[in-house]
């Protein structure tokens, strides 16, 4: 049997850091970086005699993430101790949630090769992050700055059947969390990472195979590559008569392989029990309705609206809604433009190319969406040509000035005076008898040369459409 005779079954556990100002149980700063062990205190380092106090914003952000992924909300929830020993976990347990997570039974839709697939969300729960081990020559150092950073863990159903679906889902989930404004999702800083649980089985079988878990993958492409490699590795083991061992593995990007770390623990191995120092989490209908109302229109709804209301294609609409900032920018431009599709094209061709990935999500835009809509209107009205518009756009981006101001200051207003252009066209035809003869003789491309003469005479300010129409009219009259 070959690779194509097997089915891949995967589920994802996505960890996302919440963008609160302080940590989950103390007043230490929740921020990336800093000198080792400078953003920690007796509470987040687990000193004896300390007591945690739950940060209310953590509950709000977690429930917003649940609402954005169509989850049900547990209005009575609690926290639990997940017990395991590791050097970066000073308390020897992690405060997490076990049997009563905040959110459960949700779903996220992804589009794979034009087909809509629904990925089930088993649960979303809150937990604290552990510290970081820095392996150096001669030993290992521990940085506890990350201890107590608030996380949500988004656990999916085993609904993935191909590595490409994993990448699409991760990108979609990142977009949703950014829209909900609960995480900055900076994968390079570890604020969004995933564990991939993968098993394989022969096609037609119903029983799941033995799974492995690939931990802490912080890149969409790494997640896809790791899934591809691990599936092939497992199939090769089975085809050679071997047995898959349930274990935790890591992705080695340099070698392009997964490497065994340790045998995989089951939930009972962690000896979960209720956290005695923290009260149950009780949320009211009023709180949930308030948080739901604070969410923006989510990407799937926006995409459908753009296709229906503005006549955009699925691909173009998908590009625009991939970033809430860009979607808001587009809507501002489209709301005051006579041609929303042109606004979309300008964003995709001009705006996107000038922004790096971080700038697409955060920080101010050099121009306003309304100004881009106005620029499109100036083209539609014939005030400036498409060529002039690129010059105006560049100056808008550099200065932040409105397009109308730039057009006035630079004297870029297009000449649409029909009488004046007719006079100039007559002069051009009289001074270019050979080109006129060529055109009348059947060489229709010769009109482009006459067009060039017109633009030269008007210093590039003539309305191109009017010029072409006038030249054709006068030339036809000469036949």
TrEMBL record:
<dbReference type="InterPro" id="IPR003789">
    <property type="entry name" value="Asn/Gln_tRNA_amidoTrase-B-like"/>
</dbReference>
<keyword id="KW-0547">Nucleotide-binding</keyword>
<dbReference type="InterPro" id="IPR042114">
    <property type="entry name" value="GatB_C_1"/>
</dbReference>
<comment type="subunit">
    <text>Heterotrimer of A, B and C subunits.</text>
</comment>
<dbReference type="InterPro" id="IPR018027">
    <property type="entry name" value="Asn/Gln_amidotransferase"/>
</dbReference>
<dbReference type="InterPro" id="IPR023168">
    <property type="entry name" value="GatB_Yqey_C_2"/>
</dbReference>
<dbReference type="GO" id="GO:0006412">
    <property type="term" value="P:translation"/>
</dbReference>
<comment type="function">
    <text>Allows the formation of correctly charged Asn-tRNA(Asn) or Gln-tRNA(Gln) through the transamidation of misacylated Asp-tRNA(Asn) or Glu-tRNA(Gln) in organisms which lack either or both of asparaginyl-tRNA or glutaminyl-tRNA synthetases. The reaction takes place in the presence of glutamine and ATP through an activated phospho-Asp-tRNA(Asn) or phospho-Glu-tRNA(Gln).</text>
</comment>
<keyword id="KW-0067">ATP-binding</keyword>
<keyword id="KW-0648">Protein biosynthesis</keyword>
<dbReference type="GO" id="GO:0005524">
    <property type="term" value="F:ATP binding"/>
</dbReference>
<dbReference type="GO" id="GO:0050566">
    <property type="term" value="F:asparaginyl-tRNA synthase (glutamine-hydrolyzing) activity"/>
</dbReference>
<dbReference type="GO" id="GO:0070681">
    <property type="term" value="P:glutaminyl-tRNAGln biosynthesis via transamidation"/>
</dbReference>
<dbReference type="InterPro" id="IPR006075">
    <property type="entry name" value="Asn/Gln-tRNA_Trfase_suB/E_cat"/>
</dbReference>
<feature type="domain" description="Asn/Gln amidotransferase">
    <location>
        <begin position="328"/>
        <end position="475"/>
    </location>
</feature>
<dbReference type="InterPro" id="IPR017959">
    <property type="entry name" value="Asn/Gln-tRNA_amidoTrfase_suB/E"/>
</dbReference>
<dbReference type="InterPro" id="IPR017958">
    <property type="entry name" value="Gln-tRNA_amidoTrfase_suB_CS"/>
</dbReference>
<dbReference type="InterPro" id="IPR014746">
    <property type="entry name" value="Gln_synth/guanido_kin_cat_dom"/>
</dbReference>
<dbReference type="InterPro" id="IPR004413">
    <property type="entry name" value="GatB"/>
</dbReference>
<comment type="similarity">
    <text>Belongs to the GatB/GatE family. GatB subfamily.</text>
</comment>
<dbReference type="Pfam" id="PF02637">
    <property type="entry name" value="GatB_Yqey"/>
</dbReference>
<dbReference type="Pfam" id="PF02934">
    <property type="entry name" value="GatB_N"/>
</dbReference>
<protein>
    <recommendedName>
        <fullName>Aspartyl/glutamyl-tRNA(Asn/Gln) amidotransferase subunit B</fullName>
        <ecNumber>6.3.5.-</ecNumber>
    </recommendedName>
</protein>
<dbReference type="GO" id="GO:0016740">
    <property type="term" value="F:transferase activity"/>
</dbReference>
<keyword id="KW-0808">Transferase</keyword>
<dbReference type="GO" id="GO:0050567">
    <property type="term" value="F:glutaminyl-tRNA synthase (glutamine-hydrolyzing) activity"/>
</dbReference>
<keyword id="KW-0436">Ligase</keyword>
């Amino acid at each position: 049997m070959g690779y194509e005779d097997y089915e891949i079954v995967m589920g994802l556990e996505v960890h996302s850091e919440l963008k609160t100002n302080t940590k989950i149980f103390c007043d230490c700063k929740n921020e990336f970086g800093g000198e080792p062990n400078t953003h920690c205190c007796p509470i987040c380092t687990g000193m004896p005699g300390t007591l945690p106090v739950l940060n209310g914003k953590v509950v709000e952000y977690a429930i917003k993430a649940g609402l954005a992924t169509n989850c049900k909300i547990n209005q009575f929830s609690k926290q639990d101790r997940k017990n395991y020993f590791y050097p970066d976990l000073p308390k020897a347990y992690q405060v997490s949630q076990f049997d009563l997570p905040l959110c459960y039974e949700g779903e996220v839709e992804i589009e794979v090769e034009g087909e809509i697939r629904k990925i089930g969300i088993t649960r979303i729960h809150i937990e604290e992050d552990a510290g970081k081990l820095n392996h150096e020559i001669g030993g290992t150092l521990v940085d506890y700055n990350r201890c107590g950073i608030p996380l949500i863990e988004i656990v999916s159903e085993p609904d993935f059947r191909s590595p490409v679906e994993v990448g699409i889902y991760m990108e979609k989930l990142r977009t949703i969390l950014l829209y909900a404004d609960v995480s900055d999702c900076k994968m390079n800083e570890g604020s969004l990472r995933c564990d991939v649980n993968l098993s394989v089985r022969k096609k037609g079988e119903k029983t799941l195979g033995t799974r492995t878990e690939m931990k802490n993958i912080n890149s969409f492409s790494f997640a896809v590559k790791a899934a591809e490699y691990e599936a092939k590795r497992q199939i090769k083991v089975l085809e050679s008569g071997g047995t898959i061992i349930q274990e935790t593995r890591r992705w080695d990007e340099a070698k392009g392989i997964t490497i065994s770390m340790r045998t995989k623990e089951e939930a009972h191995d962690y000896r979960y029990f209720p956290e005695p120092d923290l009260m149950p989490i009780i949320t009211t209908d009023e709180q949930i309705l308030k948080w739901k109302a604070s969410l923006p229109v989510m990407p799937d709804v926006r995409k459908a609206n753009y296709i229906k209301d503005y006549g955009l294609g699925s691909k173009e609409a998908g590009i625009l809604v991939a970033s809430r900032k860009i979607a808001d920018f587009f809507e501002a431009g489209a709301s005051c433009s006579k041609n929303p599709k042109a606004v979309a094209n300008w964003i995709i061709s001009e705006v996107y190319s000038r922004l790096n990935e971080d700038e697409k999500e955060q920080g101010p835009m050099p121009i306003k969406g309304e100004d881009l809509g106005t620029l499109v209107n100036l083209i539609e009205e014939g005030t400036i040509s498409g060529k002039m518009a690129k010059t105006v756009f560049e100056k808008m981006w550099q200065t932040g000035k409105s397009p109308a101001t730039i057009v006035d200051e630079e004297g870029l207003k297009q000449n649409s005076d029909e009488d004046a252009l007719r006079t100039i066209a007559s002069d051009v035809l009289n001074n270019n008898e050979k080109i006129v003869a060529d055109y009348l003789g059947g060489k229709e491309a010769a009109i482009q040369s006459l067009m060039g003469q017109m633009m030269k005479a008007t210093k590039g300010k003539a309305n191109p459409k009017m010029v072409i129409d006038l030249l054709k009219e006068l030339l036809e009259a000469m036949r």
